[in-house]
Amino acid sequence: MRVEMVLPSLEVGGMEAMAAALVRRLQSRGYAVGVTCLVQVGAIGARLRDEGVEVRQVGSSGVGELLNPRALRSHLAGRTPSVIHVHSGAWLKTSRAAAPLRGVPLVCTIHGFDGVDHNPGGLERMMMRLAARYTAKVVPVSDPLLEYMLRQVGLRARQVEAIPNGVDCCRFRPHRPDRSLRASLGLREDAVLAGTLARLVPVKDYPTLLRAFSMVAAALPDSHLVITGDGPLRDELVALARMLGLQGRVHLLGERPDPEDLYPQFDLFVLASRAEGTSMSVLEAMASGAAVVATAVGGTPALLQGGEAGVLVPPADPQRLAGELIALLRDSARRGALGRIALARARAEYSLERMVDRYEELYRRVVAPGAAVLAAETG
Question: Which one, of 266, 238, 254, lies nearest residue 339 by Cα?
Fold first, then answer.
């Protein structure tokens, strides 16, 4: 079976990391896998190329190409895939390109939206319904996203099937205590580190995190916040940290190729997002045995088992977030207990192997004779 992945790009991000992990695992299971990027290849795409994966960019812009994407259609036809697997941001264009390819089913993974109360307007809803007509199965990465596609978009239950993201529990795992990150930042070995890893974009709500950490810093003089990731808000966050008097207490590392070495060095992991699908960084932290404090949005409450495997806080509430961070940073026994529960849950329920098994089974179903035609007729 040949699978062609289609994404806007393979720049660094949770969706892109999930897709790349799926590509690698499918190849290891004997699939022929190609990747098509519509905007740019990106850093993750370049790494896949170095590993021997066929990654190509097929650029096409303008309204005409959106409704009649001739270049993409020709490219996909030449790839002769058994199934096309498209991801958020490339769905409509890919569905239009794939529609004439009779017998080639389309699977679309929906990773999330940028607003906690995202409500699609009439045009957006119409476009998603149009794309769904040519899609064998729409796959949200969490149950809240599944409900969104049913209630807000108006898809039918038989069109939609949730498959949560999975984490590579061999790559992300607990390590022996390592203080190299503290040394590289010029900190004492006993400095307390709260860490986060996410793109520097509005939906991750770093202003709430920084305001919360200003209260943590006042209560715990040896505490520091480590931010891993990059994005358009970097300069704004540097300015806000300065305004809050957090110079020397907040450390922006930028993109790092070794996140698996960072999570075990955090005393806890924190994520203040306003919206999430199934957060890859929360999953990576869990698989690394870190205690997690995160906002109760999207699929995060399910990951943390309603608060049994981590601490859940309301979004956009810096005071509540600060209180939970302070309490947990003061309680090493509780951090250890939460980390062990999170680790066991990641391995049992959210492993990469489990996710790939479910996509494999889905591919087999949609390529069965008549499956793609039936999906289009019921859309």
Answer: 266
Look at residue 374 in the predicted model and tell me its pLDDT. 42
- Nearest one of 131, 129, 126, 88 to 106, comparing CA atoms: 131
Coil, strand or helix at 234:
helix
* Residue ranges, the chain, pLDDT below 70: 60-67, 114-121, 369-379
Residue 227 one-letter amino acid: I
Q: Minimal CA–CA distance to 114: which of 319, 275, 349, 320? A: 275
- Token pair listed for 102: 């009779």
Give the model's pLDDT for residue 73.
Answer: 94
Give the per-residue pLDDT at 253: 97
DSSP labels, 363-375: HHHHTSTTHHHHH
* Residue 109: closest CA among 201, 16, 178: 16
CA distance 15 to 63: 25
Q: Any bridge partners for residue 313, and if so which? A: 295
What pLDDT score was predicted for residue 62?
62
DSSP state of 62: S
Q: At what angle do helices 70-79 and 91-98 cross, to 10 degrees?
A: 70
Please tell me the predicted confidence (pLDDT) of residue 370: 56
Q: Which two tokens stand for residue 338?
A: 């939460």
* Structure tokens, 36: 């098509």
